[in-house]
Amino acid sequence: MKLEIFYIDAFTKDQFSGNPAAVIFSNLEDENLMQKIAAENNLSETAFINLDNNNTIRWFSPTTEVNLCGHATLASAFVYFKFINKDETEIIFQSASGELKVNKINDIYELNFPKDNLKKVDEVDKVASVTGIKPIETYLGDINMFAVYEDENILKDMKPNFDMLINLDGQGLIVSSISEEFDFVSRYFCPKYGINEDPVTGSAHTSLIPYWAEKLNKNTLHAKQVSARGGELYCKNIESRVLIAGNAKLYMKGEIEIS
User: Is 180 considered catalytic here?
Assistant: First the structure.
């Protein structure tokens, strides 16, 4: 079996930055094989899209399937518009998190994702023991723990204890603060799923956008994920949804052979 594969850097205009994702368009439905391919790719996510099955999209980390992934969805839309259907400017994927629409606006790819449901929780001390620095406040969303800090330099210098982080509630830990250059900055850690730090995390912004929209009293936001690779996101807060937009860059196009 031969499968065409693309490596795409998402949420960036430049190669070697943003968040790399593998993208495979095929009719493959073997979950075990999908997981093996994702483990072999060893990227934070590999996306599998079946256009013959209502544009179904599934995402696999190196260790498990996940229910929502922003950067691999953006990467998948980039491949679709650039290599599969160059005349289209919209695609709707069907996923474990429902219908996900992506619009192509010039060189920007805009994701339409469901908004997270954040609940304030008293996990300040637990998060402080993991990160070494006490946050202002903590929240638990549908997927992740979310901690707010008062200064962006704290985020940039943060070195979490990943063995301890695994014991926090939620899939992973989002940390965020207000920023001088951007509206807000963030980082995302997810060792439970084999990803100590994800370079740029679209799905985390389903939590970040509504939080900062309320705090800053504005619905259009410019964000930066301040990982080593880094990436920029153009965000909008709209009713029960959020719009998360960014660029993408092709790194590699090739073929894998399954014997």
Answer: no
